[in-house]
Design a protein that fits this description.
By secondary structure, this protein is α+β, with helices and mostly antiparallel strands. The protein has two helices and three strands. Strand 2 and strand 3 form a beta hairpin.
């Protein structure tokens, strides 16, 4: 998983405090979306599609397919 449950609780509590102090909004981002965003700035900029595959353990994977349109990524499948 992403870390111990206690670590997640501490991190989320710190985030909540940050939001309360600064008034800034918080937006959740899928880890697959975050990895796919690297394709906008890497050597694969000219690719028309991006496929992200991440190890989910136990002989499984998380995957998502994106189309590149007008400089943005649009998730096609997950």
């Amino acid at each position: 998983g992403p870390g111990s449950f206690t670590s997640l609780r501490v991190g989320l509590s710190m985030l909540k405090a940050f939001v309360l102090v600064t008034g800034k909004p918080v937006v959740g981002v899928s880890s697959l979306d975050g990895i796919a965003m690297n394709a906008r700035t890497s050597r694969v900029r000219k690719a028309l599609q991006v496929c992200v595959i991440n190890d989910a353990r136990r002989n499984m994977v998380y995957s998502s397919l994106y189309d590149k349109k007008d400089g943005t990524l649009v998730r096609r499948r997950e």
